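Chapter review: from sequence to fold.
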Amino acid sequence: MTTNLLMVRKTNNQIIKERILKAYYDNPNYCLHCGKTIVVQESQRTRDARVKKFCNHICASTYNNKIRILKKQPKARFIGLSPEDYLAKGLYQNAIKRKGAA
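The token string follows.
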């Protein structure tokens, strides 16, 4: 008697899970980077997939690195040089030549 009850309960849980997955895939979340549907993994809850914005960590890093503002930093060999040393090494003239060519 108890095994039949367990089987009925299991099938009811499967039916509920199928309904929830069908409702999710009727209106799924899409990856912000590649636009693919975010798939619900077998061991994952549907509500966890609803929170996701990216399909994987590669899409997340690519998307977030595109909007990151890069800071231009001076090269380490020029830090601490006096203006005289900078001019003496001809670095100023090289910078002007590059700027004029661009």
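Two observations follow directly from the output. The chain has five helices and no strands. The chain has two domains: 1-70, 71-102.
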